[in-house]
Design a protein that fits this description.
Helices cover 17% and strands 34% of the residues. The chain is of the alpha+beta class. A hairpin with a 7-residue loop joins β8 and β9. It is globular and about 55 Å long.
Amino acid sequence: MNAPVYHFTDTARLPHILFSGELRAGRNQIGGFPDPDFLWATTSATGDRTASASMPALREGRVRLVRFTLAAQDFEPWDTIVSRVPAWTPNHVERLERAAIGKSRPQDWRCRLAPLPADQWVGIETRSYTDKVWRPLPTPWSVIPLDAQSYAVQIGAKVYASTAVPGPHGMAAYVPTVLNAEDAA
C-alpha cells in the first residue's frame, strides 16, 4: 500500500463533516480561483499552514486540530489533476503556488474532485494546541445534532460544537463552542 495522505481541519468543521458522511471540497472564492475547487490532502503528516483551521480558536482551546488519514490512491498529485481541469489555467496554478511559498509545498499536495465517503477514511485523529500528540477520535464516533445548522462531537471530557454561518468569499464559516461533557448532558 502507498503511504497515506492527510486532510487537516479542526473541530469546528468536524461535526459537520461527520454528519454529512463525506469529505468534500469547499467553495473557496478567495483569490478568484476557479470552480471546481478540490478536496485537498497532503503527504505531510505534520500538515501545512494552508489547511482550514482557526489558529486563534485553537490557541484559546475552543477547537482541536483534526487530521484525517486517507488512502493515497484516492487522490492525484496536484500537477496531474490540475493539468486535466481546464478551468485551472497556468496563471491560476502559478498564483496559488506562489501564495503557498513558506507555508506549503505543492509537490506534497494531493487532490480529488469527488467527495470521499466515510467508509473510505482510514482514520481520524485530533490534538490540542498545548498537547501536540495526535490521538485517535474514539469510535464509534457520533454526532450530536443541536439544530439545523449546529452539530457537536464529544472528545474526552469536552463537547466541541459549532454552528455553520454564511462566511466571506462564498465559504461557510463555523462558530465554535466548547463545553464540559457533564454540562452538555
